[in-house]
């Protein structure tokens, strides 16, 4: 009797499984992004981009005829609210997949939850390198790089363009990203240039309104290079106060996230400072400009929001390109039929896709291989804000921690000769 | 630490203290008179900054002189204090003066949250930066270090003017004396015919305008961002509590103490930078629970 019941249950289960693989009316995606708080400088443009890209996909006939419907969750509401909203979207709204999230803290919290809920989760913007180095997930993937290649490319750019500097100071925000990014940067720098001297380490409070004291101190110390991985209002304030007081004349700033501040800073960021954008993200991307899809999007985004796309827009485009690509791949693998959710997860392995930047490939450990672009600021009369010259484009393969290794340990094994062994593509201007 | 570094830390400290004082003095003035701890004070600071940054930005973009930034700061903060602070006191706080303190704090906190969202609606989430006022004043070289005249000279001078001005206003004008009378004894003041409602309103508007003025002055030096009000309110609470609630001169000295403490921390122990204001507060309150300049109250029956 009991086995009969189990067989019936199995049949019923198989039946619903078959139903789930029927083409749905819409493909439901949950997207977490910052719509409040300081990080909304990233979250709002990313949401605008998601709306535009999804509208375009749907106008082109959706995913194999199925239109995308997106629900947004505000990461700014805090961890607990985010977790319960995430659960609600997965369990009540029954979304097909989630794009989460911007904050590394939130990714740390949501990755195990996605695993529990058995929902495909694309980490579309968070940077912590630890997630796939310390855990194994089936349902969690990252459609972009992580902090290690971002910082390593920055160190390489610095060492290739200014090999003779001797002193460096750091001014980072006092939270996980500010501390972790300095850890990675410092480890890589010490491995490749052991004689570089760190003369000051400042970690002003997150959201600090004033860096006057730090700047006085830096003017007295006169380091050759000042690193700041800050972003948003913090970075704007620091750069402006540094420029107002002439610190930018005596030290070279290295700003791995400043691509997202260029337009706001206007002429306040003088020429000759190093800028990155967390990947190959730049509205004048030397490999992509001239591609109509790229040019049209840059223009349409500027028309809609009044600003050119910044890196979170690129990250969002990559995540949505991955959605498109993975469904195409899973449908093909399923003989042209709509795949069930597990088949979609299977199709993520080794997936390649292209958003607004260069192509990204998902590795065995679910980490995306994304190229890194850095440049030096130059004055632009056309745009009224600094643009990048002497751009270098680093191949993701060269600078991403190998599968199965831990970033900090791997960086320690790099020697001074690593600098010359990595050969980025260079663009004169 | 040599003499040069000592001098530098000192200059940085007073510039910072000047801004903190302007916000804290409004908070302590309001508490002294209304006996309400006004959490929404942080919103007035933020809105003063937003209003100044956006209007000055528009003025400069339209090709007018950046010197107009200075009168604009005063106009913007008076408008924020009057148009937003006024109704908040008249329509809301007036109803809760007799209620428990916890409830009063919750109500002002609710106002704070509402005003935070109003700022997002009006000004969006992208940072504003408008430093024309700072740029026109130029820079000053002291001991080989470049300072902006705005931070090194203007801010401390304005803070001193506000301190002296408030003192003269409270001791030597009729409105000021009425405020002092109400602070001293509300019932007695009412009994001899002082219009307490009006005094409350004037005090709240002046206090809110001072917070907005602090924000207006800060807007030239910093990015105006969502959440800036919350940070400032926490710091000004620390100043006000350390000084003793309701003590204006005390707020000035405490702001200086905290400003200097913070800048010396950046030179000597950068890790302690954030902690210093609260360490000072803790040390003071352990020894003098009523604050540096506070007086123990005898409870009236």
TrEMBL record, chain A:
Any single biological process term in GO: amino acid transport
Domain Leucine-binding protein: 27-369
Tree of life domain: Bacteria
Keywords: Amino-acid transport, Signal, Transport
Cleavable signal peptide: 1-20
Gene3D superfamilies found in the cross-reference section: 3.40.50.2300
Recorded family membership: Belongs to the leucine-binding protein family.
Protein name: ABC transporter substrate-binding protein
Species the sequence originates in: Acuticoccus mangrovi
From TrEMBL, chain B:
Gene Ontology MF terms in the entry: transmembrane transporter activity
Keyword NAD on entry: no
Topology of the protein relative to the lipid bilayer: Multi-pass membrane protein
Transmembrane regions listed in the UniProt entry: 14-37, 44-64, 70-93, 105-129, 149-170, 199-218, 275-296
InterPro entries: ABC_transp_permease, BCAA_transport_permease
Pfam families: BPD_transp_2
CDD domains: TM_PBP1_LivH_like
Subcellular localization: Cell membrane
One of the GO BP terms on file: amino acid transport
Keywords tagged on the record: Amino-acid transport, Cell membrane, Membrane, Transmembrane, Transmembrane helix, Transport
Keyword Cell membrane: yes
GO CC terms of this entry: plasma membrane
Highest taxon above the source species: Bacteria
Protein family per UniProt: Belongs to the binding-protein-dependent transport system permease family. LivHM subfamily.
Name recorded for this polypeptide: Branched-chain amino acid ABC transporter permease
Organism from which the protein derives: Acuticoccus mangrovi
Lineage: Bacteria, Pseudomonadati, Pseudomonadota, Alphaproteobacteria, Hyphomicrobiales
């Amino acid at each position: 009797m009991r086995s009969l019941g189990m067989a019936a249950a199995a049949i019923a289960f198989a039946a619903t499984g078959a139903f789930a693989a029927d083409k749905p009316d819409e493909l439901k995606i949950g997207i977490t992004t910052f719509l409040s708080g300081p990080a909304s400088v990233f979250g709002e443009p990313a949401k605008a981009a998601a709306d535009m890209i999804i509208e375009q996909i749907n106008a082109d006939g959706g995913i194999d005829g199925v239109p995308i419907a997106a629900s947004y969750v505000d990461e700014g509401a805090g961890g607990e609210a985010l977790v319960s909203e995430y659960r609600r979207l997965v369990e009540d709204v029954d979304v097909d997949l989630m794009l989460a999230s911007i904050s590394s803290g939130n990714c740390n919290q949501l990755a195990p939850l996605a695993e529990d809920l058995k929902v495909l989760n694309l980490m579309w913007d968070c940077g912590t390198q630890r997630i796939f180095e310390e855990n194994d997930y089936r349902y969690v993937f990252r459609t972009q790089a992580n902090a290690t290649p971002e910082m390593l490319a920055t160190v390489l750019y610095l060492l290739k363009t200014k090999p003779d500097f001797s002193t460096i100071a750091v001014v980072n925000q006092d939270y996980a990203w500010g501390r972790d990014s300095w850890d990675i940067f410092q480890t890589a720098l010490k491995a490749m240039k052991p004689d570089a001297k760190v003369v000051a380490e400042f970690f002003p409070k997150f959201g600090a309104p004033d860096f006057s004291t730090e700047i006085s101190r830096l003017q007295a110390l006169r380091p050759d290079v000042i690193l700041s991985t800050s972003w948003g209002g913090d970075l704007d304030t620091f750069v402006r106060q540094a420029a107002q007081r002439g610190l930018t004349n005596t030290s070279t700033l290295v700003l791995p996230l400043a691509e997202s501040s260029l337009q706001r800073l206007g002429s306040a960021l003088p020429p000759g400072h190093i800028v990155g954008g967390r990947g190959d993200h730049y509205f004048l991307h030397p490999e992509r400009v001239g591609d109509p899809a790229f040019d049209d999007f840059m223009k349409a985004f500027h028309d809609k929001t009044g600003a050119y796309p910044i890196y979170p827009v690129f990250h969002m485009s990559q995540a949505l390109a991955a959605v498109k690509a993975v469904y195409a791949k899973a449908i093909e693998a399923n003989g042209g039929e709509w795949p069930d959710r597990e088949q979609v997860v299977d199709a993520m392995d080794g997936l390649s896709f292209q958003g607004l930047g260069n192509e990204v490939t998902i590795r065995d450990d679910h980490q995306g291989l994304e190229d890194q672009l850095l440049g030096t600021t130059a004055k632009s009369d056309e745009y009224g804000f600094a643009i990048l010259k002497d751009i270098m484009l680093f191949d993701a393969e060269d600078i991403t921690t190998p599968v199965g290794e831990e970033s900090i340990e791997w960086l320690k094994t790099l020697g001074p000769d690593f600098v010359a062994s990595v050969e980025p593509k260079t663009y004169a201007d | 630490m040599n003499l040069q570094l000592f001098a530098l830390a000192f200059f940085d400290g007073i510039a910072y203290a000047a801004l903190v004082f302007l916000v804290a003095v409004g908070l302590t003035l309001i508490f002294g008179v209304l006996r309400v701890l006004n959490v929404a004070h942080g919103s007035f600071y933020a809105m003063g900054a937003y209003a100044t940054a956006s209007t000055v930005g528009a003025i400069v973009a339209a090709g007018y002189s950046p010197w107009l930034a200075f009168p604009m700061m005063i106009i913007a903060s008076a408008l924020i204090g009057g148009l937003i602070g006024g109704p908040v006191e008249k329509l809301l706080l007036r109803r809760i003066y007799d209620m428990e303190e916890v409830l009063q704090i919750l109500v002002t906190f609710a106002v704070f949250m509402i005003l935070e969202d109003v700022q997002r609606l009006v000004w969006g989430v992208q940072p504003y930066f408008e430093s024309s006022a700072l740029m026109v004043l130029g820079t000053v070289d002291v001991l080989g270090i470049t300072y902006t005249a705005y931070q090194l000279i203007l801010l401390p001078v304005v803070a001193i003017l506000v301190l002296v001005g408030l003192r003269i206003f409270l001791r030597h004008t009729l409105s000021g004396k009425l405020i002092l009378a109400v602070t001293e004894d509300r019932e007695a003041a009412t009994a001899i015919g002082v219009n307490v409602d009006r005094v409350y309103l004037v005090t709240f508007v002046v206090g809110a305008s001072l917070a907005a003025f602090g924000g207006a002055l800060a807007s030239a030096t910093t990015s105006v961002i969502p959440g800036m009000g919350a940070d400032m309110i926490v710091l000004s609470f620390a100043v006000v509590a350390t000084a003793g609630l309701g003590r204006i001169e005390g707020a000035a000295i405490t702001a200086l103490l905290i400003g200097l403490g913070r800048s010396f921390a950046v030179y000597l122990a950068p890790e302690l930078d954030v902690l210093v204001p609260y360490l000072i507060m803790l040390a003071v309150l352990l020894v003098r629970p009523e604050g540096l300049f506070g007086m123990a109250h005898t409870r009236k029956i």
